[in-house]
Amino acid sequence: MSTGFERLPREYRMSRPRMVTVLTVLVTGTLGLAKGLLELDGLPTSFTYPFLVAWAGLMGWIFYTTLRSSTTADLEAIHVHGVFKQRRLAWADIQDIRAEGNPVAARREHAPKVLVYAYGRDGRRMLLPFLDNLHVNVGREVGALLEAWEELRGDDWAPSPEAAVRIDRRDTLRRALLSGVSTALLAVIPLTVLMLLPLFVDLPGWLEPVLRPFVVVVAGPALVFAVAATASYRKRTRDR
């Protein structure tokens, strides 16, 4: 039976079918934009063609950097090559490797439902791109990385209490913010009904400034977010 040490290196990249999908979306969008601009009357060619060339270059860069993005685990560290930057987390600095649910998956049909993160000594988590349920068997791959981590982190490795506190605080804050966003989104319909209420019901004069469209649409969701996030944070802090 192979050990975690022997299972390295491991590399995770975008699958070929998803590469084709991304390329198709970028090309289709670019052609649609080009058709729309070229059919518009009044746009000078001195603007249209340079803009389309720049747009095509941007889409090409996005596709190229997406192809280069990856997660690699070798004998020294876990390396993440992202679209904008590269990160490295040595095995000895890793505090945990976790598979977590993706809150965005509920709103995006093709988003991964499970993501994997590596946590460092500073309490920050590092997303491991393409190590998700759309590209790999998450349970198997996380198990392999955990075995490698246990072997390569060093005999003198010990969990950092300070890092555990930071991880816990960041997790609490992140979940509170997600709770605030979700509650604010759910409040949009009730707030819209509230905004339209003066059209059908005679309300006291002091309510008119409160139910103005700008106040309800802008300040309403912001207030709901703040209240929900604060309440969630305090509750989670008490429960821990």
Structural write-up:
It is flat, with a radius of gyration of 24 Å. It has six helices and seven strands, in the order E-H-H-E-E-E-E-E-E-H-H-H-H. The protein has 240 residues and is an alpha+beta fold. 15% of the residues are buried. Helix content is 52%, strand content 13%.
Question: Which tags fit this structure?
Answer:
three-stranded antiparallel β-sheet, four-stranded antiparallel β-sheet, 240 residues, flat, alpha+beta
Summarize the structure.
With 240 residues, this protein is of the alpha+beta class. Helices cover 52% and strands 13% of the residues. The chain has 6 helices and 7 strands.
Taken from the alpha-carbon principal axes, the silhouette is flat
* String of helices and strands: EHHEEEEEEHHHH
Helix content: 40-55%
Strand order of the largest sheet: 1-2-3-4
Largest sheet: 4 strands, antiparallel
Structural class call reads alpha+beta
| Distance, first to last CA | 39 Å
Give the low-confidence spans.
none
Beta-strand percent range = 5-15%
- Number of DSSP strands? 7
* Computed CA radius of gyration, to the nearest angstrom: 24 Å
Helical run tally: 6
Mean pLDDT: 84
